[in-house]
Write a structure and sequence with these properties.
The chain is α+β, with helices and mostly antiparallel strands. It is 32% helix and 17% strand. Strands 1, 2, 3, 4, 5, 6 and 7 form a 7-stranded antiparallel sheet that branches.
Length: 305
């Protein structure tokens, strides 16, 4: 089987620091440490965390997401993380049903936040789609239908139809905030908050025996992914779990720790560089960011699966 080679249609993050900083400034609290200072006391032990297991706890399996077809990675990273957030909230006591979310709707709404409607260029940035989750809300996939890149292109250019926008308004996330340091990331993970991350780092398309992909310093990906969805220490080195938007088994290779087959591990140094680009976003559905003890099967150390 030939190795997957990404093309421009597999990306879509716009590295616009001034614009994304302006949107982040409109968050109720711009950074996680400001949104939840009480949680910064947690995360120092850096125990292994497997938040992605919440998908199986709620649905019985990991999602089989399609590959993005245009430069709409920001909607994949944000919506897939919002999907996981739904599952996390349900396992931790929220009384609701899980519904996979429409990426096309979030893409169009994010571009509206970014003032990019009627711009023929594909793409968006993380703080804009994060703001869309709270300002406009989200739409269940079953309202819109299966993913369609042409629909994403249309809604990213012309805007989301009024009826879909009204449906989104019924399901708003409560908070989005930037995660900019490993301390914030660890505090978020230790309390059951997943993030999506945007940046320029490229990676190997083959996982090693530990499920990790090394940074490819010869290349650059302007890309948004789910991350961090977990954290694991291997031989004294901390890795974070990223989720790709390029379909099943991308990257290829082993999936220890019961990793979903679209996920891989990233070295903490690389993740720290990505956080420093200030376009990694944590989301919470209800009542802000609260201290939440996690189920044992998300946290026990040394588990391989």
């Amino acid at each position: 089987m030939s190795q997957f080679i990404p093309t421009p249609n597999h990306f879509g993050w716009l590295d616009w620091p001034n614009q994304r900083a302006a949107v982040a400034a409109t968050f109720a609290a711009p950074t996680f440490s400001q949104a939840a200072p009480q949680l910064m006391l947690y995360g120092s032990d850096r125990k292994d965390i497997f938040l992605y297991r919440a998908f199986k706890d709620v649905t019985g399996s990991y999602p089989s997401y399609p590959a993005q077809q245009i430069g709409d990675c920001t909607s994949f990273g944000s919506c897939h993380t919002a999907d996981l957030t739904q599952c996390l909230e349900i396992v931790l006591g929220d009384q609701e049903e899980y519904h996979e979310l429409s990426t096309e709707a979030t893409y169009g709404l994010g571009r509206e936040v970014a003032n990019m409607l009627h711009d023929r260029q594909d793409g968006c940035y993380g703080t804009a789609v994060g703001k869309a989750l709270t300002e406009f809300g989200v739409v269940p996939r079953d309202v819109v239908g299966p993913y369609d890149g042409k629909r994403a292109k249309e809604w990213g250019y012309s805007g989301v139809p009024a009826d879909i926008k009204r449906a989104a308004a019924e399901h708003k996330f409560a908070y989005s905030t930037l995660v900019t340091t490993l301390a914030e990331q660890d505090a978020a993970l230790d309390n059951g908050y997943a993030t999506f991350t945007c940046g320029n780092e490229a990676f190997s398309m083959q996982r090693d025996a530990n499920g990790a992909c090394a940074q490819d310093t010869r290349d650059s990906w302007p890309h948004c992914m789910g991350g961090a969805w977990g954290r694991v220490t291997i031989s004294g080195v901390v890795y974070y779990v990223y989720a790709q938007s390029w379909g099943a088994n991308v990257p290829s290779g082993p999936t220890p720790y019961d990793l979903p087959n679209h996920c891989f591990l990233v070295h903490e140094r690389v993740h720290a560089r990505r956080l420093a680009q200030k376009d990694t976003v944590a989301v919470a559905k209800f009542n802000g960011f609260q201290r939440r003890p996690l189920p044992n099967n998300w946290t026990y150390s040394g588990w391989i699966g």
